[in-house]
Amino acid sequence: MTPLLVLPSLLCHVLLSAATVCVLWGDFELPVFMNNGDFTIGGIFPMHYRVEMPHTDYKLQPMSAQCKGFDPRAFRWAQAMRLAVEEINNRTDLLPNHMLGYKIYDSCSTPITAQKAVLQVLNGQETAHGAMCSGASSLLAVVGESGSSQSIVLSRTLQPFRVSMISYFSTCSCLSNRAKYPTFFRVVPNDDYQVKAIARLLKHFGWKWIGVVTEDHDYGRFALQGLKRELENTDICLAYHEMIPKDYSVEKVLKILDVMRTSSAKVIVVFSVEGEFYPFLKEFMNQNITGIQWIASEAWVTASVLAESYPLLDGTIGFAIRKGRIPRLRDYLLTVDPWRYPSNPMVHELWEALYGCSTSPASGSSQLPTCTGNETIRDQYSSYMNTSSPRVTYNVYKAVYAIAHSLHGLINCKPGKGPFQNSSCSNQIDVQPWQLQHYLQEVSFSIADEKINFDEKGNAIPYYDLINWQRDANGQIQFVTMHHQSVKIDTSVIFYNKQVLVSVCSDSCPPGYRKAVRQGKPLCCFDCVPCDSDSVDCISCPDDFWSNLNGTQCIPKVVEFLSHDAMGMTLTVIAVAGACLTLLVLAVFFHFRNTPIVRLNNSELSFFILLSLTLCFLCALVFIGEPTSWSCMLRHTAFSITFSLCISCILGKTLVVLGAFTATRPGNDLMKWLGPRQQRVIIFSCTLVQVVICAAWLISAPPFPLRNTQYQRSKIILECSEGSELAFWCVLGYIGLLACLCFVLAFLARKLPGNFNEAKYITFSMLIFCAVWLAFIPAYVSSPGKFTVAVEIFAILASAFGLLFCLFAPKCYIILLKPDKNTKLNLIVRFEPVLLPHCGIYNVHIMYILRKINL
């Protein structure tokens, strides 16, 4: 840069620095409680249940969100933090010569308000002059939050600054993800442990049909996922899952209650914080729904406000986090009053909630009477003074001490033995939050005979108490601890609202009956049907037996196959009659082999067709009787080869007819390729392909007899398994290919002169053949049994009769009944009128054709 440009730049920088001022553009809310110290920690507590968002018209600056529904229980948590800080500051063995400060804010149990609170903790409220604003607070750690959704927002907000957060009540398993939440710690077990315990509890009491109600936050969603995962391999089913709407609506709640009322599930697991569940229960009580066993999550299982306000919750069971002992807690809570904190509006709200009176009637903001000093604490708000068995309050207490012990380890670091780069220690005058995080991860101390430390994911040691809500003789609700740590439950001390509820979708089946699952329903919902060999809860009979109608005895199954009964004998008679009829036609053709009509139809091919048809009729007999290894192998192979031979002969005849009548002049050499030798080659080649397929089938996976006991439980069906379905369909497909080719060629030649042309008869025969076998396929694949075998035999016989009658009936009619038409002259005379209107060359063509076909 040139010297001429340096001076203006410096002047601009100086002027800009002098003019820059950090200014608060919005209202800065003061902490609920604040105390200065050498090290500052933050505290975020849901001192109100909900937030009312202001109306926004986008014309004026919107007002701040209004927190509603004061929560004395959460206010007690905040006081526990203050008490812990005071105790630490008065100790000489923990953080000596250092003072711990705090700033406590209200999150109003809402993520957006919680984020605003943590930003206020981070930024501070001071204004500063200079090029950079320097009014940021030296925050080292935060104690918070209770709700998992709020903790997710706070952890993500604090993460860029590497400020650690210790939650006292956020149990969502999602927060154990160290990649997403590297600065998050908690002194409460995550929900992975709780859902395991709840699953064991349900199994212990035999509650197999349950409903689940969750809040519309991450806590509820992840808890539900964990519970479903634990119930996957059990006999416990989920009847329904309903979610309490985030934006509370009476209409939506009524829909949920209607599901609960109509469901047969009598056990309901609720994953919700106290603030979300409280308004839901109001509407629940109005609907007068009874007979429910509640399973509470740790978020509300010790909520005194709910227990005292709603008797319908009596008998509730749930897992509570570990309770502890906090000395001087009750005395310290009594020191918080409006006269000691006259300018703290939260303390005034506490007083109004506890005593139902106002300490400042002149403001006109309250309709409550003025306090006289003689009021007693209202029962529904006595949770503020409930210090007999602190649980969440104890967690807050532990979280503050965890931070203090971490700071103590950081301060007492010996130079050259530190955990940071080059074995250095932190600068005690300027401690960075990331340095404190290292000591938090490694911290280990004892408090009230409990050892406190964190695992690699920032979780505390899991510990639960099994709590049962019981009402004593005075009508006061008691949280009775049934058990500690493991879920070994003493059922003798459990108090139920009326009696032990049964919550199943279907009652157990009596002896002689089994479970039949209802279509579209969970496995817990079933019908009881008489026992059989596939029973779920019955003793299975052997494969050859099935149970009687009462399900008390195994009786032999009926063996079924197509035997020589009435149906089998009928099919046998038809098959033999077809074979005999074919042989009779063969005899007729042989006797009249020198007549024109036999010679016209190529006598050699006709004899081949009649012989193959005879075999087709006889192969149907192999399908009748009990299946054996040989009969199973012979059934489809014999059938396929004989029909392939028959269709090949018909194909050869069709080619001869088509070739003869498509020759355009006598000198055409096409017919020399369709002589007797070539015809035999065509027949042999087409049949050989089928023989090769059948040989490969028999070598690789031959058909075999099978005892089918699965299709009908009362019967044993003796059938032939194909061995290879691919080979079976290849055999049928090849026959179909030959038939289709023959049909197409015959169809092309159907309009040639009828006296010399049997193409139209072949067309009809192939049409019948294809129709029969296309109809057979659905029947064959639909079900096993003797009727399927009978259908296959019928298809064989029907197609064989179709070929016999279509191809030979017209010729036998002329040979036997119209011998006067079986002459060469008659055939020529009837042929000539068809062609004479055309050019004369065809008359020569006629004589050529007659010579070629030996007429």
What do these coordinates show?
By secondary structure, this protein is α/β, with parallel strands linked by helices. Among the domains are: about 515-555, no CATH class; about 565-690 and about 750-850, Up-down Bundle (Rhopdopsin 7-helix transmembrane proteins), CATH 1.20.1070. About 45% of the residues lie in helices and about 15% in strands. The strands form 7 sheets. The protein has a 7-stranded mixed sheet, sandwiched between helices. It has a 6-stranded mixed sheet with strand order 1-5-2-6-7-8, sandwiched between helices. The longest helix has about 35 residues, at about 630-660. The chain is elongated. Keywords: Cell membrane, G-protein coupled receptor, Glycoprotein, Membrane, Receptor, Signal, Transducer, Transmembrane, Transmembrane helix. It is a multi-pass membrane protein.
State the helicity in percent bands. Answer: 40-55%
The biggest sheet amounts to: 7 strands, mixed
**CATH hierarchy, class of the domain at 566-692 and 751-852:** Mainly Alpha
Q: Return the CATH architecture of the domain at 566-692 and 751-852.
A: Up-down Bundle
Q: How much is the average pLDDT?
A: 80
* Helix-and-strand structural type: alpha/beta
Count the strands?
Answer: 24
Distance linking N and C termini: 118 Å
The parts where pLDDT drops under 50 for at least 5 residues are 1-19, 127-137, 829-855
- Main β-sheet, spatial strand arrangement: 10-9-11-12-13-16-17
Assign the CATH topology of the domain at 566-692 and 751-852. Answer: Rhopdopsin 7-helix transmembrane proteins
| Total DSSP helices | 23
Give the radius of gyration. Answer: 48 Å
**Percentage of β-strand residues:** 5-15%
Indicate the overall shape. elongated
